TrEMBL record:
Keywords (A to Z) from UniProt: Hydrolase, Metal-binding, Purine metabolism, Zinc
GO CC terms, sorted: cytoplasm
Species, as recorded: Micromonospora kangleipakensis
Keyword Metal-binding: yes
Record's protein name: allantoinase
């Protein structure tokens, strides 16, 4: 039997754990997995071989706000960071992905410039609920909805009645930004992080998550809680799951690694919504991840122009809320996961396998026969210091500047082809109906 590529490593991370193996690739997929010594091939030795990460929460912002980020820069950053599949959020681009025509516009904008595979979420807004089934049929992987102001006027939130209408409209995954507006006060103009944090309390997430779970219970719909920040919501989610509610939840590297206590005055690169909370909350989120109450970790890569972060005044109320971390999520998470005694197999489950399963890309995010040959050679012991200027995000604004992180991506294969951010774009545009 002949193969296009054979990669051998003593640390191949499979769904069953780490093992020495030879990964044999044909026609873009993993065709066989043999013993490490059984076949010849490129030998990675003690370097780990991971499935490429699957990041289901990325705001690419093109077209319309391409000066914030774009398909070329975002996917180069992804590739450099060991992420081989992203799913683009429907908002912050113009038009937002809320109609079949808008999806066409988005796919046209992305065509020919993606360095990793790219799929698309649709958006559910008050005036497109009758069109959700058509948009779903056109290939989006599910729908995102807000219960609160999204930050951009063209993507308004759903009220509770419209949320139920949306959930009943089509059987797919509904991603919910869960913060309850009645619990949120407008942040005072201030350079103190504590003032911003106090304006978006944990109760806002608790109430919103409870409402979403009630709506899922009533409709039988499948819901996914986005960027969970408040650990107080975890018992609600765990109980709902025991009751048979179809619910999954994600959190992000920044909630698991950064804490409110360490955010300096005026450091608006740390601003995101919901906010980064205190140290005890961070530890409780880790416990939720380990227990399975939280399914996965994705970036919520949400950049903007540096000016919109208002570094001139350091005002947390005025700054855009969003953290750009597509290129850094893997080492940020590995650094903290390893410190807490976790292994690469857990990291891969949280950042590749589970997100792929939730979005429905079951042939990706895992090293097994039949899966996409999206592979990453990862040195788990090497370290580096984050230099913003070396990031491939459109704008080098990051809360991780100057941090020393462990874990370096040494090589990446997309559908079995060796790829680099400088090389030609080989990413595919993914459609739910082709999966
Ligand atoms: Zn987001």
């Amino acid at each position: 039997m002949s193969f296009d590529l054979v990669l051998r490593s003593r640390r191949v991370v499979t769904p069953a754990g780490e093992r020495a193996a030879a990964i044999c690739v044909r026609d873009g997929r993993i065709a066989a997995i043999h013993d490490y010594h059984a076949v010849d091939g490129q030998d990675l030795g003690a370097m780990a071989l991971l499935p490429g990460l699957v990041d289901t929460h990325v705001h690419v912002n093109e077209p319309g706000r391409t000066e914030w980020e774009g398909f070329s820069s975002a996917t180069q950053a992804a590739l450099a960071g060991g992420v081989t599949t992203i799913v683009d959020m429907p908002l912050n681009s113009l038009p937002p992905t809320v109609s079949v025509e808008a999806l066409r516009v988005k796919r046209r904008a992305a065509a020919g410039q993606c360095h990793v595979d790219v799929g698309f979420w649709g958006g559910a807004v008050p005036d497109n609920l009758a069109d959700l089934a058509d948009l779903h049929a056109a290939g989006v992987f599910g729908f995102k909805a807000f219960l609160i102001d999204s930050g951009v006027p063209e993507f308004p939130p759903l009220d509770p009645a419209d949320l139920r209408k949306a959930l009943a409209a089509v059987d797919t995954t509904f991603l919910i930004h869960a913060e309850e507006p009645a619990e949120i006060t407008s942040a005072p103009s201030s350079a103190r992080y504590a003032d911003f944090l106090a304006s978006r309390p944990a109760t806002a997430e608790q109430r919103a998550v409870a409402d979403v779970l009630d709506a899922a219970r009533a409709t039988g719909a499948r819901v996914h809680i986005l960027h969970l920040s408040a650990a107080e919501t975890l018992p609600l989610i765990a109980q709902a799951r025991r009751d048979g509610v179809r619910v999954t939840a994600e959190t992000c590297p920044h909630y698991l690694t950064l804490t409110a206590e360490e955010i300096p005055d005026g450091a608006t690169q740390f601003k995101c919504c919901p906010p980064i909370r205190g140290r005890h909350n961070r530890d409780a989120l880790w416990a939720g991840l380990v227990s399975g109450a939280i399914d996965c970790v994705v970036s919520d890569h949400s950049p903007c122009t540096p000016q919109l972060k208002r570094p001139d005044v350091g005002d947390f109320a005025a700054a855009w809320g969003g953290i750009a971390s597509l290129q850094l999520g893997l080492p940020v998470m590995w650094t903290e996961a390893r410190r807490r005694g976790h292994d690469l197999a857990e990291l891969v489950r949280w950042m590749a396998q589970r997100p792929a399963e939730i979005v429905g890309l079951t042939g990706s995010g895992r090293i097994e026969v039949g899966a996409d040959a999206h592979l990453v050679a990862f040195d788990p012991d090497a370290s580096f210091t984050v230099e913003p200027a070396q990031l491939r995000h459109r704008h080098p604004v990051t809360p991780y500047a100057g941090r020393t992180l462990t874990g370096v991506v040494r090589g990446t294969w997309l559908s079995g082809h060796p790829v680099t951010p400088e090389g030609p774009p080989r990413g595919r545009l993914l459609t739910r109906t082709d999966v």
